[in-house]
Specification:
Elements lengths: L2 H15 L15 E6 L5 E5 L12 H11 L5 E3 L2 H4 L13 E3 H10 L3 H12 L2 H14 L22 H11 L5 H5 L3 E5 L4 E5 L4 H4 L3 E9 L3 E10 L2 E8 L4 H22 E7 L4 E8 L5 E6 L3 E6 L6 E6 L3 E3 L7 E9 L2 E10 L8 H17 L19
Parallel strand pairs: 11-15
Antiparallel strand pairs: 1-2, 1-9, 3-4, 5-6, 7-8, 8-9, 10-13, 11-12, 12-17, 14-16, 16-17
Helix pairs in contact: 2-4, 2-5, 4-5, 5-6
Length: 400
């Protein structure tokens, strides 16, 4: 056997011993809870104990920042209370009575995880930490984070302060749409001043420089929560969100949260892509009509549907159109005639309304008789008449 042929056979044998697709293997993470979510659709692409409530450390500050940005009060001046100055490190060492722009406190909050900045923001926006935390919890509920309770605005351990990997991903999905949020968390360094001193801040998020497409979000650590991280990255048009909670403690946990996050995000980018399943206003079918000059009417989808799918799943999407076999006129343009149900792996994924593209007026013996009578009465009485007859037996339709 020629050496070249022997080399080829050895190479082929080696390839056959490798896994078919290394990227197809699900993430193997040390974190006690984790999740991968597609930001565009909200679909959970992978999870581990994603709905188990647990401490979330400074990932709490994502919600603190969201409420501050949604308030639109970034340019207001915050007067620091003594209570804020007592927050434990990490902190920017604010002084009681110090005056500083709220937007600058947000930079300290998200770049260097300043606990005193969180307290100052909370007190300025709602008057007290307790009132602000109540607002945080309410906002979480509104965003679908049903298993989240905030007792601190900075994430320090408290008895009932908890969230889940799923809830944090849902909150972050909203946060990425809040004007100014992505710009805030992608700021690499910041320099600003209060009325008494200057500050220099450096972003502690290593993912921004270590992972292609990274654009967020927030680190966290407490003795109860362990090392946590909410990550985000965007490649082309796909924005992914990862959450890892309790990746470990000590130096090992500190480095493991980055390993876990990259594992989760790589799994998403390597295995999922978008497929447009339904296009809004595209014809979905025709429906037969009775009691109308028009014998049939088109109907269309009312919304787009794009799904984040693995290669295997792309052949497992089924669209079922549910409309009656016939409908009786009158029908108005835009009337809902039925639904398109989208199934993935046999499970209902979404339902989209189907609406009429045009109007079909009723036309039968009753409406014809009404038209004749109204025209005659209008001429006789010399005024517009709109007479409506009671329903007539269907068998009279043969007179049409």
């Amino acid at each position: 056997m020629k050496p070249s042929m022997l080399l080829f056979l050895c190479f082929t044998l080696l390839l056959s011993l490798l896994p078919v697709s290394l990227s197809a293997q699900e993430p193997d993470v040390a974190a006690s809870a984790a999740i991968l979510m597609d930001a565009k659709t909200g679909r959970v692409l992978w999870e581990k104990n994603a709905h188990t409530p647990q401490a979330m450390a400074s990932t709490t500050k994502i919600m603190t920042a969201v409420l501050a940005l949604e308030s639109g009060r970034e340019n207001e001046t915050v007067k620091v209370s003594k209570n804020a100055t007592t927050a434990p490190r990490m902190k920017m060492y604010l002084k009681s009575g110090e005056e500083i722009r709220l937007g600058d406190l947000l930079l300290a909050l998200m770049l260097e995880s300043s606990n005193d900045a969180a307290i100052a923001i909370a007190e300025h926006l709602e008057g007290s930490v307790e009132a602000f935390c109540a607002l945080m919890t309410l906002r979480a509920q509104q965003l679908g984070a049903k298993n989240t309770v905030y007792e601190t605005p900075n994430g320090l351990d408290a008895e009932n302060h908890h969230s889940t990997a799923y809830d944090l991903a849902a909150i972050t999905r909203h946060a990425l749409e809040v004007p100014g949020f992505i710009q805030l968390i992608n700021t690499r360094e910041a320099h600003f001043s209060s009325n008494i001193r200057s500050y220099d801040m450096v972003n502690k998020n290593r993912l921004l420089s270590e992972f292609d497409g990274a654009n967020g979000v927030k680190t966290g650590f407490t003795g109860k929560a362990g090392h946590c991280f909410v990550g985000a990255a965007k490649r082309d048009d796909m924005q992914l969100i990862s959450v890892v909670l309790a990746s470990g403690w000590g130096d090992k946990g500190r480095s493991q949260k980055w390993v876990d996050t990259k594992e989760v995000l790589n799994y998403g980018f390597d295995n999922f892509s978008y497929k447009t399943v339904i296009v809004a206003n595209e014809q979905a079918g025709k429906i037969s009509l009775t009691r109308s000059r028009t014998t049939e009417l088109d109907y269309v989808y009312t919304a787009d549907l794009t799904m984040a799918l693995s290669n295997e799943e792309k052949g497992q999407v089924e669209v079922k159109v549910n409309v009656p076999p016939t409908l009786q006129a009158p029908i108005n343009k835009g009337d809902v005639l039925g639904q398109a149900e989208v199934y993935l792996n046999g499970q209902l994924y979404a339902s989209i309304d189907l609406t009429a593209t045009d109007t079909a007026l009723r036309h039968d013996f009753k409406t014809s008789l009404e038209k004749i009578l109204n025209q005659w009465l209008s001429q006789v009485l010399e005024e517009q008449i709109e007479l409506t007859l009671p329903e007539l037996p269907n068998f009279l339709d043969f007179l049409e």
